[in-house]
Amino acid sequence: MSDFEEKAREALANPQNVGEMNDADSVGTVGSPDCGDMVRMWLKFTEKDGKKVIDRASFQAFGCQTAIAVASMATQLLKGKSMEEAAALKPEDLTGDLGPLPPMKIHCGQLVENALKNALEGTSTESKSGETISSNIAQNQPKGSIRIVPIED
Which stretches does UniProt call biased (Basic and acidic residues) (predicted)? Predict the structure, then answer.
């Protein structure tokens, strides 16, 4: 088992800051049509020395284990960062103790980065009580019907 796999396994065994944050100041949600993964990140701000800084961060992830592990690490790293400092973080910064992601998993770090940037931009600021990623997916299913057309030999 590689060092990355061992650290990812540890992060998955005890993920930090999982779940909705009802008093969040901002919420960011992103999804990948390529792999079907989605990440939602909640941010709560406070003021420190006249600057707006992240007091708490939490997440929900729907998809691969690496996205969950990276989001868990990222929410821990964000505490105390100003909005500018958080916005400057790259996927490789957000992985924390996981270290560099394998090439096939780089998109997981990018998902977390984009959820963070989405929350920082305030493009998704409402979080309704009880709203989760899976309920959001269910509510936004395309409308219509499926027609089955037999294929002739």
Answer: 1-10
Query: Of the residues 108, 111, 119, 133, which is catalytic?
Result: 108
Torsion angle defined by CA atoms of residues 48, 49, 50 and 52, in that order, rounded to the nearest 10 degrees: -30
Looking at per-residue pLDDT, the higher value among 43 and 129 belongs to 43
What pLDDT digit, counting tens, does each position of 83-113 carry? Answer: 999 999 988 888 888 888 888 888 888 999 9
Query: Can you read off the two tokens belonging to residue 98?
Result: 């996981």
Task: Output the CATH code of domain 3-124.
Answer: 3.90.1010.10
Please say if 108 is a catalytic residue.
Answer: yes
For the question of residue 64 being annotated catalytic, the response is no
pTM: 0.74
